[in-house]
């Protein structure tokens, strides 16, 4: 137990140990304050560069938009407006990149429509009919300029006041001496805060108080600088998220498109499988059964006149029936076997590994995740097809099938199936061939497939299928 505790302690960094050891609560506060100060250079760089950036963007966008609107009755006006939209999109992308460089979390980009109708009208509708372009134009031409000027003024004032107050005792010596009647800031402030108190007119005392006042003010301003810079950058982040980010409807459209593509891929994969099954049955068992029928008919005719010939025909018919049965068994691997329905995916995959002509080991970690029957059937078919490819084309001496369930980064349960072999490699997804059909089947399940097969081997084909 002691050794285990020491091992865990060694894995903790000094900051974590400091937080655990410090019982008075000061370590977490100090850690947070250090993290805030660590962000100040990036946030301050963002804020100080804001004024020139928003000014240039404002001038360019307002010029293009005004020119386009004023000449819209002419043919060229709409093209100038389209140029304003494109420029606004670029400026928005720059703003999002600046925010990420300042340490802000990334904002999901809009789903820009890359497809457009042919012709000038389609080209213009592509730019002028998309609400994102107009929001980007409003952001760069109005909102970000106004907010950027305000945040830049606050940031530069806070920084200069803090640095100037902290160093007042140094540079104040080079200022002209106070003359009678000049205003002492500290005298005004102190006499206002403490009514009835008179500080007098001793210039040495007033100068000392002035230095103390400015130094304290500078320390306060610099101590609060991390909070000010972070708050100002957060303002830009909030505005950018609302105006430059992706719409909720964009995610819905993308989901609908993905579901449509998955459905089309599933239909295409099913059609491909049915056509291949039809072709395999026609070229294999059907031909053997037709020949078997002819052989039996010939044996029946020769049974009385030539028993030896009839016996030879019957032996040939038996061979034909055995071959047809083997081919039917091979074809049935594309369907769900009774073992899969009775004992589940793990037992069915183990049966596949045992029946494979290439020595195959299997590693299963399916856990307690509930797998839908259609997913089990598809995974079984994919594994059977991949092992068949290994036996036919890879010249491998061993293969490994790995199947596991786990949670993805988004918390979604996924099933991962990997088939590895030490064969000659060069496996590729070619249209109309086996791997292309498998890719369509996986896509129909909203999954992903990756093929790693350099020339000379080895080959690893991995699929990842969501379970929800």
Please characterize this protein's 3D structure.
This protein has helices spanning 2-11, 14-21, 26-70, 75-101, 119-128, 131-166, 168-171, 185-193, 203-223, 225-244, 248-283, 285-305, 307-332, 338-343, 345-355, 373-394, 434-444; strands at residues 360-365, 399-407, 413-421, 448-452, 459-466. Strand 4 and strand 5 (459-466) form a beta hairpin. It folds into three domains: 10-246, no CATH class; 257-332; 342-466, Heat Shock Protein 90 (2-Layer Sandwich), CATH 3.30.565.10. 22% of the residues are buried. The protein is built from 17 helices and five strands. The longest helix is centred in the N-terminal third of the chain and has 45 residues, at 26-70. Helix 3 (26-70) packs across helix 10 (225-244), helix 6 packs antiparallel against helix 9 (203-223) and helix 16 (373-394) runs antiparallel to helix 17. The model is unreliable at 1-27 (pLDDT under 50).
């Amino acid at each position: 137990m002691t050794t285990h505790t020491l091992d865990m302690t060694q894995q903790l960094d000094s900051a974590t140990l400091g937080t655990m050891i410090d019982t008075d609560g000061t370590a977490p506060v100090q850690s947070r304050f250090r993290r805030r100060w660590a962000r100040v250079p990036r946030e301050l760089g963002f804020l100080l560069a804001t004024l020139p950036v928003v000014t240039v963007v404002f001038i360019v966008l307002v010029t293009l938009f005004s020119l386009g609107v004023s000449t819209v009755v002419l043919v060229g006006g709409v093209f100038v407006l389209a140029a304003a939209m494109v420029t606004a999109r670029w400026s928005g992308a720059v703003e999002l990149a600046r925010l990420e460089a300042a340490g802000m979390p990334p904002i999901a980009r809009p789903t820009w429509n890359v497809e457009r109708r042919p012709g000038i009208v389609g080209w213009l509708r592509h730019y002028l009919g998309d609400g994102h372009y107009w929001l980007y134009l409003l952001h760069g031409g109005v909102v970000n300029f106004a907010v950027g000027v305000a945040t830049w003024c606050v940031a530069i004032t806070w920084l200069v006041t803090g640095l100037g107050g902290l160093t007042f005792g140094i540079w104040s010596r080079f200022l002209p001496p106070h003359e009678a009647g000049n205003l002492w800031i500290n005298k005004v402030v102190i006499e206002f805060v403490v009514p009835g108190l008179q500080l007098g007119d001793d210039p040495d005392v007033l100068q000392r108080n002035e230095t103390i006042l400015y130094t304290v003010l500078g320390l306060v301003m610099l101590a609060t600088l991390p909070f000010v810079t972070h708050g100002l950058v957060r303002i830009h982040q909030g505005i950018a998220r609302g105006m430059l980010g992706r719409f909720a409807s964009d995610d819905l459209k993308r989901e609908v498109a993905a579901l449509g593509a998955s459905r089309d891929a599933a239909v295409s994969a099913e059609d491909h499988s049915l056509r291949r099954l039809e072709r395999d049955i026609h070229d294999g068992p059907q031909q053997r059964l037709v020949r078997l029928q002819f052989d039996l008919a010939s044996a029946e005719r020769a049974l009385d006149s030539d028993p030896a010939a009839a016996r030879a025909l019957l032996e040939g018919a038996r061979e034909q029936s055995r071959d047809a049965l083997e081919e039917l068994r091979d074809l049935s691997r594309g369907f769900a076997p009774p073992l899969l329905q009775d004992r589940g995916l793990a037992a069915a995959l183990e049966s596949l590994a045992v029946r494979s002509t290439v020595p195959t080991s299997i590693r299963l970690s399916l856990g307690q995740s509930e797998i839908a029957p259609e997913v089990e059937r598809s995974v079984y078919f994919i594994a059977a097809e991949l092992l068949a490819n290994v036996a036919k084309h890879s010249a491998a001496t061993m293969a490994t099938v790995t199947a596991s369930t786990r949670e993805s980064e988004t918390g979604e349960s996924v099933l991962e199936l990997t088939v590895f072999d030490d064969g000659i490699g060069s496996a590729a997804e070619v249209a109309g061939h086996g791997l292309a059909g498998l890719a369509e089947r996986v896509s129909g399940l909203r999954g992903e497939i990756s093929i790693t097969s350099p020339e000379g081997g080895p080959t690893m084909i991995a699929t990842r299928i969501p379970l929800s």
